[in-house]
Backbone:
């Protein structure tokens, strides 16, 4: 599979470049001449059918998915000639039903950010077998059924997070981990971090518990961890919403002086804490929700041209780089007017 790496600044520009390089996004009728020399065809041709594209995403149940929903809405406004159906779901069952409905409507393409990887793979396979063009964003399917897969570099996310934690702890300390929703994103992050911790025998991972990228769940899980572990040096939350829930629990327990929390994804409120040198949140790492817009741009660009020809040159796997955010560079990642 061809893979292209992107940084945050060129995530959307890559899609626009694809539009230019591959011939734009408008279907145009060809012009022929009659025996009498008069131009005909373009003026008399019936209007081309609008592209029908479905966008299936998780409901805005926390900050990052709220950003996904915001970017999806704004990306769709760039293409008024596309018949968009944007649907969101709180759980895999609802999302599967949404995608089934979109197939009944006869969509040409689907842009899917899965609530969870495993339950969404069968319905994505079904759509693929029916010839629907699929762009998979962020949480990968368990089978190669997507035409294009766009994700953040979650292995680098986990590795860079763990390397920062190890360095700040001086190679020695107790770490507790909050995990996210069961999917390829969480698996890649945690396995990469665990590989780093394993190279440092004086780093002890006390426990790993799922908090589902949810602030309230993280609050509850952290409360349990604080009761279970009398000494924690770092809580790796692996997500900004979970970090905020964990922070509340740590402060309410009066243990905010003994540890630090490493979050993740670049929420503006958390980046501001890093910028202000909050000792509880010393750093963060990027993971932009705007990747859903990139998926939508690419879906339009491919379906608006000669699909088979375009896909001969299109990378099938786009990997977005992640960057460590520290007090020294936090200002360039802080966008106060952002939804996220």
Residues:
């Amino acid at each position: 599979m061809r893979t292209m790496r992107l940084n945050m600044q060129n995530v959307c520009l890559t899609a626009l470049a694809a539009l230019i390089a591959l011939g734009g996004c408008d279907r145009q009728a060809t012009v022929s001449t009659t025996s009498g020399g008069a131009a005909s065809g373009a003026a008399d041709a019936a209007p081309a059918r609008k592209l029908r594209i479905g966008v299936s995403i998780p409901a805005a149940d926390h900050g990052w998915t709220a950003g996904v929903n915001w970017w999806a809405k704004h990306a769709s406004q760039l293409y008024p000639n596309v018949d968009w159906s944007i649907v969101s779901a709180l759980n895999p069952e609802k999302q599967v039903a949404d995608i089934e409905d979109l197939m009944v409507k006869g969509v040409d393409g689907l842009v899917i950010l899965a609530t969870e990887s495993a339950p969404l793979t069968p319905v994505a396979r079904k759509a693929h077998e029916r010839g629907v063009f699929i762009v998979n964003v962020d949480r990968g399917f368990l089978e190669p059924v997507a035409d294009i897969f766009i994700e953040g570099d979650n292995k680098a996310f986990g590795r860079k997070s763990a390397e920062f934690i190890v360095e700040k702890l001086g190679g020695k300390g107790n770490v507790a981990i909050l995990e996210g929703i069961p999917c390829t994103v969480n698996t890649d992050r945690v396995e990469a971090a665990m590989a780093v911790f394993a190279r440092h025998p004086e780093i002890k991972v006390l426990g790993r518990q799922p908090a589902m990228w949810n602030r309230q769940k993280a609050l509850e899980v952290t409360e349990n961890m604080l009761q279970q572990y009398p000494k924690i040096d770092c809580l790796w939350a692996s997500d900004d919403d979970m970090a905020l829930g964990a922070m509340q629990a740590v402060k309410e327990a009066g243990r905010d002086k003994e540890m630090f929390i490493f979050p993740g994804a670049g929420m503006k409120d958390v980046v501001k804490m890093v910028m202000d040198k909050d000792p509880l949140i010393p750093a963060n790492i990027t993971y932009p929700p705007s990747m859903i817009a990139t998926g939508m741009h690419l879906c339009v660009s491919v379906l608006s041209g000669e699909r088979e020809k375009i896909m001969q040159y299109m990378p099938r796997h786009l990997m977005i780089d992640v960057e460590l955010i520290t007090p020294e560079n936090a200002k360039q990642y802080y966008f106060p007017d952002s939804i996220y």
